[in-house]
Design a protein that fits this description.
alpha+beta; three-stranded antiparallel β-sheet; flat
Length: about 140
């Protein structure tokens, strides 16, 4: 690895030490369906978001609930505080498309219809309300 690449990688790692996030890769759900659930909790207070995800009927909400709990745990691990005593909120959440399994389904007259089984990557960031206000 070259010197420039190493320096930029070290800067990126230092920036990640001050951010609290969790990632979930290769979720076998289409990104469109996952984004519907992600939009419900974007910018919301963490406890409220957890309760919304718990009672949502969508299949993706169970995976996002587990991921949000992981992000909260990461925050607690890095700051050595309890999440109950601080106002945590979902600062960012985004869903990117991942690899796509491509299959063929037999169709009439010797044709084949394409089946695309989509998957996605989800990244969720949590932060405190007062931490965000100090930066502005």
């Amino acid at each position: 690895m070259g010197a420039r690449k190493r320096i930029s990688a070290e800067k990126r790692k230092e920036a990640n030490k001050t951010q609290y996030f969790a990632k979930l890769n290769n979720v076998p759900t289409s990104p469109r369906k996952m984004r519907l659930v992600a939009d419900m909790i974007r910018g919301m207070e963490v406890n409220k978001a957890l309760s919304i995800l718990k009672f949502s009927p969508k299949e993706a909400s169970g995976r996002l609930e587990k991921l949000l709990k992981s992000a909260i745990s990461n925050w607690e691990q890095k700051t050595e505080q309890k999440a109950d005593s601080v106002d945590l909120y979902v600062s960012q959440i985004y869903v990117d498309s991942a690899t796509m399994l491509k299959r063929l389904r037999p169709a009439p007259q010797g044709r084949g219809y394409r089946i695309r089984k989509r998957s996605n990557h989800v990244t969720i960031y949590v932060d405190t309300k007062n931490n965000n206000e100090n930066e502005n």
